[in-house]
Write a structure and sequence with these properties.
357 residues; alpha+beta; BirA Bifunctional Protein, domain 2; eight-stranded mixed beta sheet; 39% helix
Amino acid sequence: MDDLRQKYLGAIADAADEAALEALRVAAVGKKGEVSLKMRELGRMTPEERQQAGPRLNALKDEINAALAARKAALADAALDERLRAEWLDVTLPARPRRAGTIHPVSQVTEEVTAIFADMGFAVAEGPQVESDWHNFDALNIPGHHPARAEMDTFYMHRSEGDDRPPHVMRTHTSPVQIRSMELSGAPLRVICPGRVFRADYDQTHTPMFHQVEGLAIDTDISMANLKWCLEEFVKAFFEVDNVELRFRASHFPFTEPSAEVDIRCSWEGGTLKVGEGDDWLEILGSGMVHPKVLEAGNIHPSVWQGFAFGVGIDRIAMLKYGIPDLRAFFESDLRWLRHYGFAALDVPTLHGGLSR
């Protein structure tokens, strides 16, 4: 045993790396190592011999294992010291130039729209993206047979078989926020409701998730004339033009009566949109006077109060203003696209400082 002790303790002390150390461990205390084979011989010894040899073998095994652990720690410390000597950093060197992140066009346009309507006295209202069927459809005078309530157009939340509770949907517009605002604040009321909405559609100008902003104004003497002025001021401020001509076309929305689609006069010279001039018309939003049933759903008496509402796609007007050809690119996270169309972090839109760069 003294020979084994000297043999292995000396070899362990001289081991140059962890591979050599592992080879010594296997040769000494592995399943077929020399110390392990000696311990197997205990069964052939007499009780007196076993009583003397057993403790000595166990002590030898523990001593070799301790030497292996100590040498392994020493090798690790030496390797770390070598890395620290080789891998160093001169902190006096100048920093590498890095491009700052950019603001997504949807975020920028949302801030632009918010700044414009805030100047007109509109507050920002928010609501849940998973809405009750009642807030999303029934309260907005959308009947049960309306195509928008079909599963081919609307994302319904999963319900277990036998669940009789009213369904919930991924909101198809931000109009439910108008209902919640009326329930919460009553009248008079003046809010805009920006946010994500969801519909089962996907092509160059439609995506399953997109962004809308809707406006609602309720008072005792509001008319279509107020709506027309509000939208004219918004379009002039957003597209940063002095004059704009709007065209109201009669339409139908369940939640407004009368309802109107709104077009702006424009031109497409060289593929560039110019608002306020030319002989073309471009539809940009829907609007109308709030339906009496919608007011009643929001606990507002329609014989006393009336109001107007409108809705516009944030992604759509961002495409028009900044010349973005494909809506799908908004959500593809392409760094080249983001760097091209993105905005500087400090380019905060204000009416006095300018909305866009």
